Amino acid sequence: MNKQFISEKIKKDIFQINEPWNREGCNIFLFKKDNSCLIFDVGLGLFSIKKFINKLKIDNFLVALTHSHFDHIGGIADFMAEEFIVPKVIVNAMQNRSGWALEYLKAENFDESKLVNLVDKTAQQICNDFIIQIPDMIPIKKNIINWFDYCFEVIHLGGHSNDSCVYYDHAHKILVSGDLLYNGEIYTNCYSSDKKSFAKALNIISQLDFEIVLSGHNKIMNRKKALFVVQKWLSDLS
Ligand SMILES: [Zn+2]
C-alpha cells in the first residue's frame, strides 16, 4: 500500500520521516518526548505531516527549519505561528519566493506509482498547484534551543542558501545539517548559494564534535562518512 510518509526510528526518541513519493524529498527529523516533539523541517506539504505525527500520540509541537527551500518548508502551513522556533535569517528569507528553489520542483522528481490511491493528481498538476503559505512567525531571540535534555546551538552558516543553518547538540553529539551536508551531490546553483561561504561552512562543520549527522537528504551519516563527504564537497567547490 502506498504511504504518505514513511518513518524510521533512529534512536529511542528520534525518528526520520520522509515522503516516499518524492525522490528529491527532504528528511524530516522528529525528536519525541511523551506527547511532545521537536521537528526539524517539514517536507513538501502535499499531505499533512501534523496529522501523521498525531498518530504517534503527539499533540505538542515545536518546529525548527534548516533553510527556506520548498522541499523543507512546504508543510509549514500545517503548524501554528507559535509552534515555530526559527532564526530570524530564515524567517526573513522565507518572505522571498525567489529563494524557495522552486526551479527544482519538477514532475520528474515524483514517483507517480507511489502516489496512486493517495492523491487524484498528476505529478505535473502537483507542481502547478504548489503553494506555500508562510505563517506570521516571530523569530527566536537566542540561538539556543533547549528542549527537554537536548540543547541545540543554532549556527547560521549560509553557503547552500544564504539562510542555511545547522543545529548542533554538543552533549548528544548530534548535528542536524539540512542541505549543508548530506550523502549526495552538492548543489551550488540555487538562488543565494555561495561557494565561498559553502566551503567555509563545511570547514566549520568538520570542526564540530558530532557522532551522527541528521542530514537534509538521503541516509543519515556517522562521523566518518560525514567527514568523507565534507572532503568530497570541498574538492567539488574548489
Ligand atoms: Zn536546500
Rg on CA atoms, Å: 17 Å
Order of helical and strand elements:
EEEEHEHHHEEEEHEEH
Which runs of at least 5 residues are low in confidence (pLDDT < 50)? none
- CATH homologous superfamily heading: Ribonuclease Z/Hydroxyacylglutathione hydrolase-like
Q: Let me know the average pLDDT.
A: 96
CATH class: Alpha Beta
Overall number of domains? 1
Strand order of the largest sheet: 6-7-8-9-10-11
Structural commentary:
- This protein has 238 residues and is an alpha+beta fold.
- The protein has one domain: Metallo-beta-lactamase, Chain A (4-Layer Sandwich).
- The chain is 22% helix and 23% strand.
- It is built from 6 helices and 11 strands.
- The strands form 2 sheets. Strands 6-7-8-9-10-11 form a 6-stranded mixed beta sheet.
- Strand 10 and strand 11 form a beta hairpin.
- Helix 5 packs antiparallel against helix 6.
- It is globular, with a radius of gyration of 17 Å.
- The model has no long low-confidence stretch (mean pLDDT 96).
- The chain binds zinc ion (ZN).
- Zinc ion binds next to loops.
